[in-house]
Amino acid sequence: MSMTRREFAQMLGIAGLAGMLPVKGMAASRQPSDLYEVPSFGNVRLLHMTDCHAQLLPVYFREPNVNLGVAGAVGKAPHLVGDKLLQHFGVAPGSIEAHALTCLNYNDAALQYGKVGGFAHLKTLADRLRDSFGREKTLLLDGGDTWQGSGTSYKTRGMDMVRAGNALGVDIMTGHWEFTYNQAEILRNIEAFDGEFLAQNVFITEDAMFSSDTDYLFDDFEGRVFKPYSIRELGGVRIAVIGQAFPRTKIANPARFIPDWTFDIYDNRLQVIVDQVRSEEKVDAVVVLSHNGMDVDLAMASRVSGVDLILGGHTHDGMPAPTVVKNSGGETLVFNAGSNGKFLGTLDLDIRNGKIQDYRYRLIPVFSELIPADASMLALIDDIRTPHLGWLNEELAVADELMFRRGNFNGTFDQVICDALREVGDAQISLSPGFRWGTTVLKGQMINMERVLDQTCLTYPETYVREMKGSELKLIMEDVADNLFNPEPYLQSGGDMVRVGGFDYVCEPGRKIGERISEMTLDNGERIEADKTYKVTGWATVGSQSKGPAIWDVVADYLRDHKEARIDKLNTPVLKGVKGNPGLVDYAAEVIS
Amino acid sequence: MSMNRRSLIKVVAAGGALMGLGLLMPRMAMAAWAKEAFEAKEQNTAIKSLYGDAELTESAEVILDAPDIAENGAVVPVTVSTGMANVESMSIFIENNPSPLAAQFIIPEGTAADVSTRVRMGKTTNVTAVVKADGKLYSATKEVKVTIGGCGG
User: Where is the signal peptide, in residue numbers (chain A) (predicted)?
Assistant: First the structure.
């Protein structure tokens, strides 16, 4: 493991501090004077949160050490990790912001700075930022993935988060995992949401036009399921906010929950809306609230003209500054605001004479120990959680090392899930989806049911155990790798690589589909053969419903049994063709070239 | 709007069905069913069988609308349209399918050259639309990705 001299010095620095000062003393010295004192600028303030994944309480969330960019994306935001990210954005190493934005020295720094997010803390911060600027000139935009990811959102079919979003004062949102409930439940949730739910890119299928009750459609003629955009007057100007839901929802998640709706990116239709709001609605600025994922946002910004700002999410990239994209109409600024309630993007705009003259942006980390909790939100959270506390609080096992998911390949918590699947299902091989949500547990901390649910809680949790040919396994690996590493962003789906248990492989991200995965080898050293059959277990199938127990019960059984969450072997691939890639730091396996 | 989209679509569909019948009858009458082309295993063979040796010219005037990624490979919506004059026929080829020719539409004189259908594709493939207008052949091609799905973040 190579560590640069600076990383080493920095690690010593933090370790030294942590060792010298008592914890309470640290808390006092932690308060950075400028972190939450945001000067007002211009006449409009947009607050942007995204991908909180129903985390009502503060959590730990480690940013990735592997976020590889391929082709044109190498070395560019968001494909930067660790010190490369800090250098790119000019963030001081060892600072509280550096801890928020990177995985560097994560465990120790997390002990030092504490948890992040939590709706009660988010509420205090959002209120402060609204009040200091003027509520009438501020909008709170939520990029989605809000109504899924926790035990309580699962039990209430997302309604707990609708209530929490309402209490937070979300003005406008779009969605992705919001669509993993049944159509009627989604419509009910949207009905209960006080803000506006926007999506320009969700249509009713023509088949459904004939057979279904379509009274709920926003636009019966165009076939739009949801309102595509909203015009808001604030700060003396008119702003259009256009919603862009996750365009691959029916591919990445079960289509069976939403049979009547169809999703895509629809550049052309977006362009029509942008042109229309500019010419007919005479807006001064056009904002797209997007759940495309940042690579798709960047590509879309280059193809569609007339969009001033894209406030994006999905790929969970916490970017402290926007990427400026040139297109035929000028420039579009692309922002992405991280995940899990860890950040609140704060964008102040000076809009005059029909255009954005200037802006100030801060991606404000929400350190829960530095922001007092809002009492009314705390009461609501208590109300939501109380009926489920017995389930959530069951203590299962102690974390033997830092447990996390986020990154292109197996995280440590993924390995625990994969090991649990194999042991409980008595299988040779396990597969676990490369979701980007899932919180972090520090070394030595107790993993309770709630932490397991953070990693696994979705509406299609059933597990399977079945026979699979080596060739089929290879096909799956190649297919998922192509969804991650295809050089064309519109052909990516935004998830990370499927996590594996029981075998290792070599991955060469820069190659074509069919050529990225090689040398698949079982843990016992035996090469996986195309024609041979293997016993494979997994979960979260998007086709038909599997028959096995819910994944969280499988993992909980395993952890109860072992009492300690320990990893004997991390099945993360050997990498080829990525040496020196700034999207890679402290990789746990060999990097050949 | 006195008619909502749903009723409009139903009317159009009914009209389409009638038109389909209209097309069907001359087919039977003329016995022009392009059996050989529809049964061809290779795209080039199918094109040749349908159009002879005439040359295909790629044209931006052939508007081929198909998704970048199929939501469901069993029913991928494909629309072909063109503003060209004197369109005689439009056909759709799915290169990697066992029988690449998926559909041929005969466009009667005075009819808008705008057709939509669903095609099945088992794996990622090129989709090619061929328009015959004024006796010449024009085409557009787009790759449609078919994925097993899942694992979305």
Answer: none
